[in-house]
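Support request from a user on the community tier.

User writes: "When I paste my structure tokens into the form, the page sometimes reloads and wipes my input. The last time it worked, I copied everything first. Here is what I submitted, just in case something in the input itself triggers the reload:"
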């Protein structure tokens, strides 16, 4: 703090506000977004199975789903109503939302620092490596980061001007963020930590409007909680299973691996400056604004690093830290006149952006022999071809419906066979549902026969408990790149005996 008030944004050493760069920033973001939308239309990358799954959820908008809250499905449904069901349209919200995120980052940095820091912070987040990657796909991180940044903006505005309008925005942003991804709750940990690292922010915690904002946030979550309760709390169980993974064990190296991954997600220079800042945190050389930003970065990074030590992690699980890390690092670099590092960050981002667009356009041909997997896009290619091959087999065999025993295949076939008039079902490995498809479209004896099974498990005994005739067909194999392929076993099931079909592979 620089005075006796609770204002974290007042800095007597910074120059007067200058908004001359705002039109330039908006022009850059519009051009960047246009390039990214063109890139989506040039991309040859099939929907990843998570994306296909979210699309299928969007066909029946609800207040919840088996593994995630509902907001992303609503976003996809809106996009589909505007431009259709193609891959580019399903993914189109991502680059648009990231442009909005960059603008909100500008507002946060401008309030905490100055217009120069705000301009470069906005460009740095727009061209962060993880953001560039994420603009090419549709994921729950996209709306989460928008509402996290809006919540942070409303929070710093409340510290400057305690007004009900900002309290309402804060509550709605946190609430909608939790409807995007439950990791939004980390935001409250950031508030708690900021009250410790920047003590005068505690004044806000004594304001009734702050606690009203908390009530607004959790009120937004009520419909989702009701949905979860009506569905036997499946989302909570799934989240618990996902965190536990295959079991707990103490692996400190995994925490280091997670932190190393953030150099790629947030950016090598940006995250490096942040880590150096953490080392210097206790030297009392940082402003209250710096400490506030550090407070909102630490919880997601620390929690996921801790999780990584005992189970598993995904590099994007701490994505929300990128907002405050980027603003903090940019502020430090500008304060120390490290312009070469600032411009290098932008240049690296532009290089990565160009590389991804070109690689996506030639995805079926991209292969790096030195990598273990070789074909870089092997996980996201071949799904459209699989759907075409399955459709051809169904026509030859007279199959009236399809069943799969893998969530990825179910999601992809639902998407790529959306116009084929072939009902698609999920084979349940057990009586209890293990994903959304087990809940919504489990195979039943009433499914139109014969049923074409496109499965990982080709053991006929698994299916004979429910079908009198199980005919093995040639495997269905498709290319997933120059050197890789994907295969599924194929069987034709008929003569349903009325027994509910489910069971593990024998």
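"...and here is what came back when it finally went through:"
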């Amino acid at each position: 703090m620089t005075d006796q008030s609770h204002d974290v944004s007042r800095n007597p050493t910074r120059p007067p506000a200058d908004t001359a760069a705002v039109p330039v920033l908006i022009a850059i973001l519009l051009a960047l977004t246009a390039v990214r939308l063109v890139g989506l239309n040039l991309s040859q990358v099939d929907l990843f199975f998570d994306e296909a799954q979210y699309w299928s959820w969007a066909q029946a908008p609800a207040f919840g789903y088996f593994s995630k809250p509902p907001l992303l499905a609503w976003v996809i449904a809106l996009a589909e109503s505007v431009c259709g069901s193609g891959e580019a349209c399903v993914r189109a919200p991502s680059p648009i939302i990231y442009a909005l995120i960059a603008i909100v980052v500008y507002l946060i940095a401008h309030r905490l620092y100055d217009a120069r820091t705000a301009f470069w912070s906005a460009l740095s987040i727009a061209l962060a490596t993880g953001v560039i990657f994420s603009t090419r796909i549709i994921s729950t991180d996209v709306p989460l980061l928008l509402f996290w940044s809006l919540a942070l903006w409303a929070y710093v505005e409340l510290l400057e001007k305690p007004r009900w309008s900002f309290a309402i925005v804060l509550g709605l942003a946190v609430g909608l963020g939790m409807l995007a991804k439950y990791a939004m709750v980390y935001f409250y940990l950031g508030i708690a930590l900021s009250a410790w690292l920047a003590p005068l922010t505690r004044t806000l915690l004594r304001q009734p409007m702050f606690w009203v904002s908390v009530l607004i946030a959790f009120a937004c979550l009520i419909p989702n909680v009701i949905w979860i309760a009506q569905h036997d709390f499946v989302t909570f169980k799934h989240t618990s299973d996902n965190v536990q993974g295959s079991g707990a064990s103490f692996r400190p190296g995994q925490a280091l691996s997670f932190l190393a991954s953030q150099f790629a997600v947030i950016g090598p220079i940006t995250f490096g400056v942040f880590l150096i800042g953490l080392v210097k945190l206790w030297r009392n050389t940082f402003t209250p604004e710096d400490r506030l930003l550090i407070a909102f970065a630490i919880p997601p990074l620390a929690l996921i690093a801790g999780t990584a030590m005992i189970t598993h992690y995904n590099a994007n699980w701490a994505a929300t830290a990128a907002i405050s890390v980027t603003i903090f690092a940019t502020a430090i670099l500008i304060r120390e006149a490290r312009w070469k590092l600032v411009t290098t960050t932008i240049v690296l981002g532009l290089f990565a952006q160009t590389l991804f667009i070109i690689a996506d356009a030639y995805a079926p041909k991209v292969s790096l022999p030195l990598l273990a997997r070789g074909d870089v896009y092997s996980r996201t290619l071949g799904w459209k071809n699989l759907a075409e091959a399955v459709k051809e087999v169904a026509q030859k065999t007279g199959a009236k419906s399809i069943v799969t025993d893998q969530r990825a295949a179910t999601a992809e076939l639902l998407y790529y066979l959306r116009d084929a008039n072939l009902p698609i079902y999920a084979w349940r490995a057990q009586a209890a549902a293990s994903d959304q498809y087990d809940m919504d479209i489990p195979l039943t004896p009433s499914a139109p026969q014969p049923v074409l099974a496109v499965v990982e498990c080709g053991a006929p005994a698994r299916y004979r408990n429910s079908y009198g005739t199980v005919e093995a067909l040639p495997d269905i194999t498709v290319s997933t790149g120059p050197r890789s392929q994907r295969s599924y076993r194929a069987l034709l099931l008929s003569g349903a005996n009325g027994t509910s079909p489910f069971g593990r592979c024998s």
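Agent notes: The reload is a front-end session timeout and is unrelated to the input. Confidence is low (pLDDT under 50) at residues 1-7, 9-17. The CA atoms of residues 331 and 337 lie 10 Å apart. Escalated to web team.
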